[in-house]
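It would be a great kindness if you could assist me with a short task in structural biology. The matter concerns a single protein, recorded as an amino acid sequence and a row of backbone structure tokens. Kindly check, if you would, that the fold set down in the tokens agrees with what the sequence suggests. Thank you for your consideration; the sequence and its tokens are set out here:
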Amino acid sequence: MSYPDQHRFAMQLAWLSRAWRAELDRRLAGLGLSQARWLVLMHLNRFPEMPTQRELAKSVGVEGPTLARLLDGLEAQGLVKRIGVPEDRRAKKIALEDKARPLIEKIETISREVRQDSFAGISEDDLKRCQQVHAHILSNLEKR
């Protein structure tokens, strides 16, 4: 692959990521959540047990203070709660409140619709090949 093709591919990947998030934001706007907040809810929902604040920050890919501010907002909305860890006074586990469950279901539904619309007309073989290419690029990046 030539340099201009590599450059074009990298730019398309960045544009795709931005466009995907923008479309999700547009469709989720009516739920009263910023992208950062709904992302925290989605990550939190995928943990089999309540994560610590540190584990959740790592999963979301944000620094601790950033997550703390997001959790403050989600807590004020009644969507999450922090629970002290008896064996470590500084640690907090994060739990979803019941009020968050229907909201997460709406987020999941909207996310599924975005995926269906985005992958329309793309064959399974093309999708698998694209995933292989992305995995190879990610592996190359992680070697560094």
Summary: The longest helix spans residues 3-28.
